[in-house]
Amino acid sequence: MANQKNVEQIYDCIDETCMLLYEELKTPYLQGLTMACNAIISGIAPEELSLDARTKIESALGALNEKEFDKEETRKAIQLAILKGFKHIRRTNEDITPDTIGLLITFLLEKLMGEHSNLVLFDPLAGTANLLLTVANNLEKTVTPVGVDNNPESCQLALAMFDMLDYEEGVFFQDTFTFRNLIADAITTDFPFSKSIDGKYFPYEVLKYHHRNLRTGGYVVAVIPDDFFEVAGADEFRTIIKELYNIIGLVKLPDTMFKGLGKSILILQKNGEDVPKIEKVLMAEIPSFQDPAAVNNALMRINNWFQENSEHKRGA
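Above: the chain sequence. Below: its structure as tokens.
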């Protein structure tokens, strides 16, 4: 479990560097965040700063170098800095999936992947990669995370987080519909609220396209808006989805987490000759995360479903 004091120490170092870069050079906070991460990795303060500023930062860097931090402590610290940076530019924090959802997806993937110990985990709409790396850090497996996003600022932040967490470079700055030749064991993503345009609904197009980047028997565990199966084109999508995937389950998230329309977690499995069908789809609802006992009961019911459907407990 992450030590909050360690999280705060890493965050304070990042934040101080960002603020000094802004005060002396007018460097935007989020750009400074990337520079701060580079400084922590190299142990050297940004040379563009004054001697006094570099001395302050290198003192903080020296204190960091005296301790070892786990990946979740580092990720949480960077996430806090990103949230502050978003606030500075009045960018909504809806682009960052809450940790509670990331941990729930981790729980589901642990059950789904079973004995598989080395996983390629792919997020085709990675953003700052917070969801992707929350899951990668918490899965009790060796994980190779891969992410794609077409926002240059988000990609820079994701790359900084990958570097800080010592993952191999796996963030690609490109349109998700041009990414191919990956063989992922699982896909996880948080779909934005979208409208059908010219008869096409963005989340449907993503699931259809990235079917090619998922191994047979691999899983999709995606956060979807609650109107996912009600938008224009849903009937056609249901037909296509049955050809490409098995629907494994749907887990409703607490409405209190969202200002407007709620969200759920959709679980799919890529079809194939040797992929078993299930007779009973997992249907569950998570109560407020503020009620640990109720959440634990919901997780126990999900666990019971996996025990009754052993082929998905073991992984395909």
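The radius of gyration is 21 Å.
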